[in-house]
Amino acid sequence: MNATVLAVVLSLFSAVAYAAAAVAQERLAARTSGAGVLRLLRHPAWWWSVVLNASAALLHVAALKFGPLTLVQPLGALTLVAAVPLGARVAGRRVSTVEWRGTALTLIGLAALLVTASGPAPDDILSPPEALAVAGTTAALIGLLTLPGSRLRPVGGTAAGSRTGLRHATASGFASGVASALTQTVTVAATDRSGSLLSPQVVVVALLVAAFATGGLLLSQTAYRGGLGGPLALVTLANPVAAAVIGLSLLGERLQGGVAGILLALAGAALASWGVVALSRSAPEPVVAPADEDHPVAAVLALDSLAPPYEGPLVPKQPAPTPPEHLPAM
């Protein structure tokens, strides 16, 4: 099978797993709003979301072995495309016309990117100084986005809680994108067979991958407390931006077709971004359906909501009528 086709197929399965994990994390965040990390670690649903994320990450690592960053990372937008029918299924509703339109725009944009970004399997890797420089720059940017009172706020009149969630989602996307770029370095270096599998370069970059992957997971968990649509859209857009910058500037990756290819890639990126934003804005908050608690995945995807039980109409209770007193005979 062609390396590009294999990378696309692996990215597709990875996107589906990431979509299931995102829905699970959003349910868990809604149920445990304000809970600390230690409380999340004691929750079984958290560990099932970790399993879904880990499975998606393994598929993503395999895709990075066969395709360049400029090809694999934009396909992460398929996560939101997969989340639309999955969320509709969990909510017991049909996919709306607006959601189908957003899906079509995203797929058309990704098809344009596939034409220009397809290329041979990657063979360049980041040197230790380059990896440390990328890690330091990304850590500083994440700090600016997540520090309390940060002035880096999304445009618009969103509430303070929503702004915090969107900032954390952007930081999560950057962390995940850098983790993917560093993962490609580890994968190529470990399978090159020209050096030791436990060389200092591989060990240092692998530790950075673990740090940024874990940070991205925790940041996305806090981001989803404000809902799924907007944060997932920002994670989906920030991830390929960070990875593409690294791939084009440090790993020697190039777009196919010269100037025409660059224009086609920009048009495709614009269409895919338009579709992702449309999907994030159009999807209603899912209604939690009863879960089969004996099935762990179903339990994760349909956690109990925080809505109070129904108590009937708010009609004042009328006092019971009192019997008339006996009147004396005249």
Describe this entry's structure for a reader.
There is one protein chain. This protein has 330 residues and is mostly helical. The chain has one domain. It has helices at residues 3-31, 37-41, 44-66, 69-72, 78-91, 97-117, 128-146, 160-191, 200-223, 229-250, 258-282, 296-301. Helix 1 crosses helix 5 (78-91), helix 3 packs across helix 8 and helix 7 runs antiparallel to helix 8 (160-191). The model is unreliable at 153-158 and 285-311 (pLDDT under 50). The chain crosses the membrane at residues 45-64, 71-88, 100-119, 131-149, 202-220, 232-252, 258-279.
Summed up, what is this model?
The protein has one domain (3-301).
N to C succession of SSEs: HHHHHHHHHHHH
Secondary structure: number of strands: 0
Judging from the principal axes of the Cα atoms, what is the shape?
Answer: globular
Distance between the termini: 110 Å
The overall pLDDT, averaged over residues, is 75
Query: What would you report as the Rg, rounded to the nearest angstrom?
Result: 24 Å
Strand content: under 5%
Low-confidence residue ranges: 153-158, 285-311
Helix content: 55-70%
Number of helices: 12
Total domains? 1
Secondary-structure-derived class: mainly alpha
Largest sheet: none
